[in-house]
Amino acid sequence: MSTETSPTSSVEMTSSSAAHSPDNPAPVIQPPRARTGRAPRSTRTNFEMYGWLFMRLSGIVLVVLVLGHLVIQLVLDGGVSRIGFAFVAGRWASPFWQFWDLLMLWLAMLHGANGMRTIINDYSERDNTRFWLKMVLYTATVFTVLLGTLVIFTFDPNIR
Amino acid sequence: MSTATVETPPQDAVPAASHLITVTFRLRRFNPEVSAEAAWVDYPLEIDPKERVLDALHKIKWEIDGTLTFRRSCAHGICGSDAMRINGRNRLACKTLIKDINPEKPITVEPIKGLAVLKDLVVDMEPFFQAYRDVMPFLITTGNEPTRERLQSPEDRERFDDTTKCILCAACTTSCPVFWNDGQYFGPAAIVNAHRFIFDSRDEGGEQRLEILNEKDGVWRCRTTFNCTDACPRGIEVTKAIQEVKRALITRRF
Ligand code: HEM
Ligand code: SF4
Ligand code: FES
Hints:
The structure holds 2 protein chains of 2 kinds. Chain A contains 5 helices and no strands. Chain A is an all-alpha fold. By secondary structure, chain B is an alpha+beta fold. Chain B contains 8 helices and 7 strands, in the order ββαβββββααααααα. In chain B, helix 5 runs antiparallel to helix 6 and helix 5 packs across helix 8. Bound molecules: protoporphyrin IX containing FE, iron/sulfur cluster and FE2/S2 (inorganic) cluster. FE2/S2 (inorganic) cluster binds next to loops of chain B.
């Protein structure tokens, strides 16, 4: 983008770039992904609505889960300094904290993934790019959720 | 630069012109037949600050450079032709007084964003109107046509009063960051005009319009940035209208 300014006395648009002429016009700049002729065919699902609702509902629950998590991990007696294998093992001995962490894992991961899906939809310009970025995102999400769930349920405090 | 006319022979000796001030207009000029690059060009004008930006554009076009291209029809905020980005905000040039936008600094005027610029301040409005057409902005009814007009209570009329004021200037849609990034999004203006019929008690096509706006590129892409409400020269509460459509979609389901 050019930001040059010139005084009015020399307003001669032709002088700067004589390469283009009416016979050789410069290309017209298209905005990314201009609207196509007709709206895409109706899918008749409520997927986007449920996605939108999920972001809000999971957000409300995450406020409690994430803030509680941060306070327990970083602030209460001793804060980060006492976090270690034993600390984690101690908390996961209780089904309550197992459930807390499981819920937080699923909600935060799905919330974050849906948020990233929104951002990919916004910013990727080519259909191919969009498809592959989403594939990477979904793979990472499924992997993290499954691995985390596996660890929470099969955690062995006596492992050496 | 002042312009010498027949009535004022020596341009230095313009008397009693104290109400005039010098204002620099910095216009984003683009002519694809000349250059692929758009450029800022400064136009210092002697002008009454109580004039509008549109008057300044007229002065430039009529007295300095006739190649300057922009749209305007009514010049009184009715037709919606002259939405442009003035000092970084979408406004109607015909409703923006120079004194209200700090004439001490150069006043920038650009085309609205997110639509292809054809020349200078003129953009291709076709994608905008396509989105408008896609929400079916006309009365849809079933059954026989009544022999008299379709009556409505004042309360029913009040329900969608705000969204009847739209003049389709595109200031809202082209201020929306979602639309800037992806023109597939219907955009605020199309939703406003769907709202006008969805909440009209005489209309029977609300269900179809809600279905269209429930799609991937419909209301759920709105991120509530309020840019549209800020931009609307008619003072329509655009974001609120979009939220009302979202609520209608949710309550329809639950
Ligand atoms: C702490 C409580 C949280 C609340 C109340 C919350 C709320 C929200 C809401 C309402 C949205 C939708 C915004 C919109 O559509 O306009 C959103 C988007 C998003 N959230 Fe959260 N969230 C929380 C935590 C998180 C966490 C822990 C993550 C990461 C794992 C996250 C990642 C995202 C992303 C990536 C988006 C998409 C951003 C965008 O649309 O531009 N959020 N959040
Ligand atoms: S809602 Fe307002 S800003 Fe949007 S097109 Fe209508 S009049 Fe213009
Ligand atoms: S020229 Fe008609 S609205 Fe400004």
